[in-house]
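Re: that backbone. C-alpha cells:
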C-alpha cells in the first residue's frame, strides 16, 4: 500500500491554508453518512479544512465520500487518530491530514509517511514533544481549561510553535484565541451541533457562515493594524 492519495497536501500547504482561513471544522457524530454531508456543507460555506473523527461510526467511508466530492481547495482529514493502524486506515481512505487528541503513536507514523498532523497537547512539555515528533502544528486541547490567557503564556517561550485552539471554542471565544496568537480555532459542537448525527444542516450552515465572516473580519482588522 502507498500513501499517494493523501500525498497531495503537504505540511507546508496545510499550515499556510490554516493560517489563512483561521478555521478547522471537526465533525463527530453517530452516522458516517450524516457526517459526510455535514463536512461537505461546511466546505460549501467556506471551510477549507474539515476533520471527521474516527469515533464516528462509518468515519472512513465518510472520509472517502468527502474526498471524492470536496470542492476544489478543500481538504478532509481524520480526527482521534491514535495508532499506527489508524494511520493505515486513514491513508487508505484518502484522508489528507491527521489530528490527534494527545501525544499518540500516530504522530510519528503520520510524519514518517508525509501526512500532515495536528498533534494534541496541553502542557509546555507536551507541545514541545509534539513538534519534536514531527507535528505540523499543535492542537491545544482542551483549550477551554486555560483560555486565551493560558495560550498567550504558552506562546511566550514557544513563539515558533503554531497553535490551534480546540475544545470549548465558540463564536464568542474565537477572537480571543486569535488575539492570543492561535493560528486557527478548531470547531466541533459549536459549529456542527447535531449535524453529524443527522440533524438539520440549515442552522449549521448559518453558523458556518458566521464563523467564516468572523475570521474574515479579524483578518481584515489585523491587516489594517499591521498585526499577525
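Recovered sequence:
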Amino acid at each position: 500500500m502507498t500513501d499517494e492519495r493523501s500525498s497531495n497536501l503537504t505540511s507546508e500547504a496545510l499550515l499556510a491554508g490554516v493560517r489563512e482561513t483561521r478555521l478547522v471544522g471537526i465533525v463527530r457524530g453517530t452516522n458516517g453518512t450524516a457526517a459526510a454531508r455535514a463536512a461537505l456543507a461546511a466546505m460549501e460555506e467556506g471551510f477549507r479544512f474539515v476533520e471527521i473523527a474516527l469515533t464516528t461510526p462509518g468515519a472512513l467511508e465518510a472520509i472517502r465520500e468527502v474526498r471524492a466530492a470536496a470542492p476544489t481547495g478543500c481538504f478532509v482529514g481524520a480526527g482521534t487518530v491514535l495508532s499506527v493502524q489508524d494511520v493505515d486506515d486513514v491513508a487508505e481512505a484518502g484522508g489528507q491530514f491527521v489530528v490527534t487528541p494527545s501525544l499518540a503513536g500516530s504522530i510519528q507514523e503520520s510524519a514518517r509517511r508525509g501526512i500532515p498532523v495536528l498533534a494534541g497537547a496541553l502542557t509546555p512539555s507536551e507541545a514541545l514533544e509534539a513538534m519534536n515528533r514531527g507535528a505540523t502544528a499543535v492542537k491545544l486541547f482542551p483549550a477551554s481549561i486555560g483560555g486565551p490567557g493560558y495560550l498567550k503564556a504558552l506562546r511566550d517561550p514557544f513563539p515558533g510553535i503554531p497553535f490551534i485552539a480546540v475544545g470549548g471554542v465558540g463564536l464568542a471565544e474565537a477572537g480571543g484565541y486569535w488575539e492570543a496568537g492561535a493560528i486557527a480555532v478548531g470547531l466541533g459542537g459549536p459549529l456542527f451541533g447535531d449535524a453529524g448525527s443527522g440533524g438539520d444542516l440549515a442552522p449549521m450552515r448559518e453558523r458556518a457562515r458566521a464563523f467564516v465572516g468572523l475570521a474574515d473580519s479579524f483578518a481584515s482588522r489585523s491587516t489594517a493594524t499591521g498585526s499577525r
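DSSP finds ten helices and eight strands in the chain. The longest helix spans residues 201-225.
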